[in-house]
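Dear support,

I submitted the protein below through the web form. The confirmation email said the job was done, but the results page showed an empty box. After a refresh the structure appeared. I'm attaching both so you can tell me whether what I see now is the final result or a partial one.
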Amino acid sequence: MGTCAQQSEIAFTYGPVQVTVQELTQRAAAYAQRGQIKSEKDYQAAIDLMIRQQLVIELKAQEWGLDRFSEQEKEQMRVEAKTIYEGLLNSYVQNYASGAPKEEQEALRSELVLYWEELGTTEQSAFETLRFERISDRVLDKVQATVTEDEIYQVYLEQVEKDKNLFENNVKHFEFYSHYRGSDIWFTPKGYRRFIRILLPVEQGLLDNYFNALHLGEDASKQRQLVIDSVAAQLDLINIQARDGQTFADAIKQHSIDPYEGNNTLDTGYPIHRESTIYSSDIINVAFAQNMEAPGAISLPAVTKEGVSVLYYVADKDGGPVELNEQMKASISSYLALQKRNSLIEDWMREYPLKTEKVVSNLQ
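What the results page shows now:
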């Protein structure tokens, strides 16, 4: 931390706005803590971010007369800021001293107030933050970005082409991004089938014996058969009920313990591919066995670590580009609006001169 004189020195001037060393160092520390810049010593990045996120918006608000509030509005913001600030203090005290005597809680609260003041976090700063949020909303509402259907469709085509190159011939990559990372997917490889299943519980010892044998590279066929034999009566009943006309969906309700019920419906189902890496080989083998020639087929039993599964072939899953629906359109529109808004802010930033003082270099 620099001297008092240094702290009050001007770090940079942006247009008519002068920012002190103290303001810059406090803001840099906050940006670094939030992961917005690499380090609290990265002052050039902090200056850029401060201009981009705050100063240019405030200058535009002044230019357009959007920074004025009535006394009633200011008082409402002060009350709201006080509530926010007090709420944060109370939350910290509760988290770190909830069971402590009242005196200790009050002492911690006093320490927090002093520490936050050093960081520039006060009831007044909460008010200024709230005031800026209101100003920012006014400015950005004034420059609503217009997004056309053609622009939305162009982004859709670009995303489809990108995902096609990634996933068309690579099921492993497709499942990694869709299943493990939860990424938005714009192209699906061909060859997927949708299934629902009945999951039958099995004694854990039988499952352990089977999977231990597999792990050791031994012939596990006997252990596998013991697992299936343990639920033979239920398997027979499922087949009898199917022949008598019971729907597989009703059989699921009667027999299954599937913990992933949200996937286990006719509308969704489990997507399985011959090259899937997220399912066991036993599941894939029964899903694509000879008896599973067409939708409506019921599989032979498969053994998994959860128990014994019986699959119902619902339908083939369409491969190729994902259909552009209203939810995707809304997502693309928001993305494009943000891009246009950021581009506009970049233009605004160039309207005002920036002068960085030598003292900033000495802070490094």
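Response: this is the final, complete result; the empty box was a page-load delay. Strands lie at 10-14, 17-20, 187-188, 193-200, 270-272, 302-304, 307-316, 320-321, 354-356.
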